[in-house]
Write a structure and sequence with these properties.
Number of strands: 4
Number of domains: 2
Strand content: 15-25%
Shape: elongated
Mean pLDDT: 88
Helix content: 25-40%
Number of helices: 2
Distance between the termini: 100 Å
Order of helices and strands: HHEEEE
Structural class: alpha+beta
Strand order of the largest sheet: 1-2-3-4
Length: 149
């Protein structure tokens, strides 16, 4: 009895097809992962921008300290309601200076009276909404409350 070792042509073709399908699947997963790997970073940047703007507003007093309401320049904002209607194309620092690396984002702030907090009069409660967008891909909203009390 003479036994030969090796692969037949059919076995070789079947193994090539299986390896080809496996390689195609793995490369497809790599392509999908690589194509969307920047999304988490962009979302994190949007969240950080929204948090910075919201913190800036929340740290201001409710009542205007100098008695002059409606300051126009961001560097002059000294109370919560000065931020109502703020719209920045490109994120900026608290003095209004653009941050070049974050120029693709837009930020809008709205401030209004709220009755959401139980036991606090609506005239003494303000809701601050910060919306950060980057094109049509990212839209991140963050809200907070500030009371006069």
């Amino acid at each position: 009895m003479n036994r030969q070792s090796g692969l037949s042509l059919v076995e070789l073709l079947v193994s090539i097809v299986i390896v080809g399908i496996a390689a195609g699947t793995v490369l497809g997963v790599f392509s999908t992962t690589t194509g969307s790997s920047a999304d988490p970073m962009i979302r994190h940047q949007a969240a950080a921008i929204a948090e910075a703007y919201l913190e800036e507003v929340l740290l201001r007093p409710v009542d205007d300290p100098d008695g002059v309401d409606g300051e126009v320049a961001r560097a002059d904002f000294d109370d919560v309601d000065d931020y109502d209607g703020l719209f920045d194309v490109g994120a900026r620092d608290q003095f209004g200076t653009p941050i070049a690396a974050l120029s693709a984002y837009s930020v809008s702030v709205s401030v209004g009276n709220s009755s959401a907090l139980t036991g606090v009069p609506s005239g003494d409660t303000f809701r601050i909404d910060v919306l950060v967008t980057r094109g049509a891909i990212i839209s991140y909203r963050l809200s907070g409350y500030r009371t006069r009390l």
